[in-house]
Amino acid sequence: MKATYRRDNSPTKRRFFTLAALVLVSFLVLSAGPVRGVLSRAVYSTAPGLWELGGNIEGSWNAFWGEFRLKRSLVHENETLKEEVSRMQAQVLDRNLLEDRVLALEEKLGRAGSDVRVSANVLAGPGRSLYDTLIIDAGTEQGILVGDRVVYVGAGVIGTVVETYPASAKVRLFSSPGEETAVVIGGQSIPAVAHGRGMGNFEAKVPQGSLVAIGDNVLIPGGNMILGVVGATEEKPAEPFMHVFFRTPFNISAISSVEVIKSTP
């Protein structure tokens, strides 16, 4: 009997699978290049747009924040300048009266030529206290009495002390509604009574035909202290009086310190 043996094909199968694996790897290597190129081109084509968008967003935010900070700084600077302008306007009016006061002192040679004043800070003013009043940080311990006059920036008289305490006092402004103050208006010193209208505003009446012009000073007699500056006049044919509207030459709500003229014994 002739024996038959099955031929072992294992080496042939291994060679086949090895060859197939090499072909597959070669295909992947060859195809990976184009795929990688496509992906790379896609990334490089979209990345600049994304970077530009991010840059634009960052730039817009920086511009917005910068403008916001600039506006806030300008608002603060504007408020500071307004207060300084008010103070300078009052100082200019004070200097305009200086010559007259010097002449008056020369005529009174040998008599007291200056007031005794106490400086005080404003603790509460219009908007924080009622009815055009101020609360100041000086009182009876500093020799302040009820009735003492209160001035701002030298000659700008604003009110009188109405209540005193050891370390504080209440000041009622002349512009308080219902307050009446004797004044003289303009270069001809026309006498009148000023009626308070609140927040540094006044109204007075003078005879028709009186020479009162916008910009004229309104003074309290005896001391040449400025109460306000004429801002408008109004005449009605049927009335024998002319209405004069004036206000303090500074912003009442911006006052941070005052001087109290102590009464002489």
State the shape: elongated
Total strand segments: 12
Radius of gyration, in Å, reads: 44 Å
Task: Output the helix-strand order.
Answer: HEEEEEEEEEEEE
Brief summary:
It is built from 1 helix and 12 strands; from the N terminus they run αββββββββββββ. The protein is α+β, with helices and mostly antiparallel strands.
Write the layout of secondary structure elements.
Elements lengths: L9 H98 L9 E8 L8 E4 L12 E4 L3 E10 L2 E6 L6 E6 L4 E9 L2 E7 L9 E4 L4 E11 L5 E7 L9 E5 L4
Antiparallel strand pairs: 1-2, 1-12, 2-5, 3-4, 3-12, 4-5, 6-7, 6-9, 7-8, 8-11, 9-10, 10-11
Describe, in plain words, how this protein is organized in 3D:
- With 265 residues, the protein is of the alpha+beta class.
- The protein has two domains: 11-114, no CATH class; 115-264, Thrombin, subunit H, CATH 2.40.10.340.
- Helices cover 37% and strands 31% of the residues.
- The protein has one helix at residues 10-107; strands at residues 117-124, 133-136, 149-152, 156-165, 168-173, 180-185, 190-198, 201-207, 217-220, 225-235, 241-247, 257-261.
- It has a six-stranded antiparallel β-barrel with strand order 1-2-5-4-3-12. A six-stranded antiparallel barrel has the order 6-7-8-11-10-9.
- The model is unreliable at 1-8 and 105-113 (pLDDT under 50).
- It holds the Pfam family MreC.
- This is Rod shape-determining protein MreC beta-barrel core domain-containing protein.
- Residues 127-262 form the Rod shape-determining protein MreC beta-barrel core domain.
